[in-house]
Design goal:
The protein starts with a strand and ends with a helix. The chain is of the alpha+beta class. It is built from four helices and five strands; from the N terminus they run E-E-E-E-E-H-H-H-H. The protein is globular, with a radius of gyration of 16 Å. It has two domains: 40 residues, no CATH class; 83 residues. Helix 1 runs antiparallel to helix 4 and helix 2 packs antiparallel against helix 3. A hairpin with a 2-residue loop joins strand 2 and strand 3. A three-stranded antiparallel beta sheet has the order 3-2-5, with no helix packed on it.
Length: 129
């Protein structure tokens, strides 16, 4: 099933590791086959990876976008999520779902679930402070 995206002027997206920026009026794109796509709003930079949950997201994002170093990024992900689970055992249901999705090769799904982990992490930190 094709994926249709509207890209407003100035917005970026990454397709299979290539950064694409709309430099003109709104553009509608239709992807007719499988591609690794991330919209600008879903991309986390290294500077934004300021917490354990965010670093997990960044490792997954890199594994999703960069096939040539996927294994390396997945190793980072596994180490980071292991540390997170140890530090916050109450995160286990979310962490298990992320691990399963990543293990099944659904890195985009794992990224979506990881947003829930980041949200949960924020809730935990509010109670600590």
């Amino acid at each position: 099933m094709p994926l249709k995206l509207s890209l407003p002027r100035g917005e970026k997206l990454v397709v299979n590791g290539a950064v694409i920026k709309n430099d003109g009026p709104d553009v509608n794109l239709v992807f007719e086959n499988q591609a690794h796509i991330m919209r600008q709003k879903d991309i986390m930079t290294m500077e934004e990876a300021t917490s354990p949950g965010r670093r997990i997201y960044l490792a997954l994002q890199c594994a999703y976008m960069f096939d040539d170093r996927r294994d390396e990024h997945l190793e980072d992900f596994e180490a980071l999520i292991g540390e997170f689970r140890e530090a916050a055992p109450s995160s286990e249901p979310i962490a298990e779902k992320i691990i399963k999705l990543a293990g099944d090769g659904d890195l985009y799904g794992a990224l979506k679930e990881c947003r829930k982990l980041i949200e949960y992490e924020g809730e935990i930190l509010q109670h600590v402070q």
